[in-house]
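To the wet lab folks,

You asked to see what we're planning to order before we commit. Fair enough. Below is the target structure as tokens, and below that is the sequence we designed to fit it. If anything looks off to you, flag it before the synthesis order goes out.
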């Protein structure tokens, strides 16, 4: 079991671990002696703490002797308030395999929550608080498109089950790739040196003004503890997918109605691009006349179409194609460069919702 410690002040790597404190006369006097940067970080932490929550994932286990079923802790993580309706955003891997969930708010109240939906490909999940949740403070949204390497960032969460904690650092790199729990690649991931430890997963990564720029998702560490490299799912991805999860229980997947040949098989055959395996009848691809694999009269396997670019952007793998779909969305008209029998042509197709 974990212990919640309030207040707590301790050094943690390059950041500062700060427990919640109630501002008072002495606190105001202390603020006057701090630098503008320190006062700004303290203000960001106080505001973000009101939006940051602690999540306990529970599983059901049957007692060997009594055969009674009990809820037992499966894991813990962080999250943040998305809206006043009680939606909580976190990582998929925080709630994965959970049967029940409890959420502890900034004021210490613990509420049960239900799982609204997940996006394993992006390591995202949305919970909904049960019953009256009091006054909720949704986190302030920022953007990840205009981030710069070197700019200051702050991570808030509940590492190791401790109370709200703050670590600081910078954006170390942009455009990183991270393997999601489903095995798909998450692109445009933010790399930071702000300390991210177990329990920080699902918590917010903020810019210096306290706006959400990412969700702390993973660390690179041989030991399992922070070693200077952390990763966050960019907020632009979060803002695009969370409303879809709330509405539909899962993201709406854009596509054209085709299945693709695995990249390893395509490369083994010397084929470049995303090779179409099969075209669904009545799909956008079918209406555009695209072809998948088929058998020749002698029984040999014939290659139909390969997609090598989307709106002029090269497509080298199936991941490239999926990423192009996600960036554009359902209803977007897209120009595909399609190769059949080594002859390229341009095909205009409107993306549709696919399962």
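Sequence we intend to order:
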């Amino acid at each position: 079991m974990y212990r919640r410690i309030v207040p707590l002040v301790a050094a943690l790597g390059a950041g500062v671990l700060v427990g919640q404190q109630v501002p008072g006369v002495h606190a105001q006097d202390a603020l006057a002696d701090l630098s503008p940067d320190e006062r700004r970080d303290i203000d960001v932490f106080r505001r973000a703490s009101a939006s940051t929550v602690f999540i306990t994932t529970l599983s059901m286990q049957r007692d060997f002797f009594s055969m009674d079923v009990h809820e037992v802790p499966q894991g813990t993580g962080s999250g943040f308030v998305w809206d006043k309706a009680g939606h909580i955003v976190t990582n998929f891997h925080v709630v994965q395999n959970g049967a029940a969930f409890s959420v502890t708010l900034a004021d210490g109240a613990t509420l049960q929550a239900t799982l609204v939906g997940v996006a394993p490909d992006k390591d995202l999940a949305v919970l909904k608080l049960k019953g009256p949740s009091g006054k909720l403070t949704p986190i302030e949204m920022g953007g990840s498109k205009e981030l710069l390497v070197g700019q200051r960032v702050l991570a808030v969460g509940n590492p190791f089950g401790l109370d709200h904690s703050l670590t600081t650092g910078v954006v170390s790199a942009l455009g990183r790739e991270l393997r999601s729990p489903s095995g798909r690649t998450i692109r445009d991931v933010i790399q930071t040196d702000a300390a991210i430890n177990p329990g920080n997963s699902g918590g917010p990564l903020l810019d210096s003004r306290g706006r959400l720029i990412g969700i702390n998702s993973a660390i690179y560490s041989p030991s399992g503890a922070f070693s200077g490299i952390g990763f966050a799912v960019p907020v632009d991805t979060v803002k695009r997918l969370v409303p879809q999860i709330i509405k539909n229980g899962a993201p709406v997947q854009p596509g054209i109605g085709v299945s693709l040949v695995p990249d390893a098989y395509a490369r083994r055959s010397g084929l470049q691009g995303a090779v179409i395996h099969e075209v669904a009848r009545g799909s956008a691809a079918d209406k555009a006349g695209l072809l998948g694999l088929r058998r020749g009269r002698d029984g040999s396997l014939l290659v139909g179409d390969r997609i090598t670019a989307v709106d002029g952007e090269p497509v080298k793998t199936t991941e490239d194609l999926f990423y192009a779909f996600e960036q554009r969305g359902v209803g977007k008209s897209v120009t595909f460069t399609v190769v059949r029998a080594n002859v390229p042509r341009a095909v205009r197709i409107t993306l549709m919702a696919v399962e």
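Structural context that might help your review: The chain has two domains: 1-248, 253-354. DSSP finds seven helices and 24 strands in the chain.

Thanks,
Computational group
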